[in-house]
Amino acid sequence: MFVSAQNSAPCFKDFTLVMPAVAVGNVGQLAVDLMVSTLNMSRVGYMHTDCIIPMAGNNPYATCKEDVEELHTPAEVYTAAELKLAVLQIRAPIIQTKSKKFRQLLVSWIKASGFTRTVVLSSSHAYQRDDQQLQGTPLRYVVTPSLLKGSVDALKELGWRELERVAPFPGLTDANTEPRLYIPGGGITKGLYTDSCAEDLPLAVLLLFCSEGDNIPDAFTLVNHLNDWLHLLDTPSQKPNQWKIPTSWSLLFGSGIPPALF
Amino acid sequence: MHQCGTRGAGLQPGKPAEECVFYRQKDNPSVLICQVTCYVAEDQLFQWTEKVFDCLQHRELNVTVLSDSTVAEYKTADYVSCSSAPFLRSLHSGAFTGQPVCQSLEQPNIVTGLSAAVLNHCEVHRIAAVVYQCYSDVIGLDSVTMETYKPALTKLGKSIQLDPSPSTDVLRKFVRNTNIQSNLYI
Predict the structure, then answer these.
(1) Mutate to test the interface with B, among A29, A42, A255, A261 (most CBs of B within 10 A)
(2) Count: domains in chain B
(3) ipTM at complex level
(4) In angstroms, what separates the C-alpha of B117 from chain A's closest C-alpha?
(5) What CATH number is attached to the domain comprising A90?
């Protein structure tokens, strides 16, 4: 699945992997775009798989004329070696019937590459929140037991809110049923989390409750939230925006308006 | 030209065949032309591409894809007035060293479908490939749209024996065949 873009395979040992889930509002993917664009990350490889719908385009992070004509594929891996950070960007939907296969491929690749931890940036339908979740921050996290061991103090210090478990059959007051994890609109998030628990992988999910629309502010919220933990940018997140918007974000809502319309 | 290919299942009499056909020039066997008139579902694009490329020798392989799209899908800051369509845009893999015959596809535009699947394969396997996509403002086929591909065909004419300017009678024959199928607006 992973094909190196260079002549030799890159080394991911001791790296942190950040990846998005293709989820409501594409917030995770937008957040990852901000990371690659701001931290000037370089592409080290492609995820070449039949699980993702094909698409192709020129360099979405082009800054000058020279690097505009560089072909990019639906799933690519970027690194920032000085931060020991690797990022997997996914730009197309995952084929529904192949979602389990894709999760298995991901888990095997993560294990084989030796990442110290994986962070999945995701989102969930805001309209599915219960009364409690409507108040306070829209950000939540879930971690696998393997990651919890090393990060308990960090998470406590950050004051983050863990994603609440829900009753499997709302309305039924059967005390025997265990509350379960529920991430509607989260794509492969829940599946990837449960697979990682089973494989004892250190994985964290950071998600945001949101709706479809202009999700750029949501992307900023999520990436700043991640930055509070990983400290990718030197400046604290309260300062004016330090994230660089990539050129591919132009015309998100269509072409310019024909002047004759008015 | 030799012809070999597969015909789509469920052919109906009177309907044009939905198929994927490979042609090879008798005098120039190093050139292969693939004409795809069938629909390839998005979850089959990857497999289709792998199957085709598994039969080809990758060394010194050069791939050119001719594709089309509606100008409504083309995003630009300045409104594209009808007079500028049809126009050609290109996308090429990292291994492509030539000069495309037209402007490169600007952000935030992308290609999808078979062209994208072929480009992805060529990029990952370091095969030289270029896609020429024609943005058109008409639904059917017309000689103006067909002529848009001329620069690409002229360039290909250097390695394939190709007549870049077929007579308008030849082009008219293709257009007439397409028009007969649609009588919605008579």
Answers:
(1) A255
(2) 2
(3) 0.91
(4) 5
(5) 3.40.50.10900
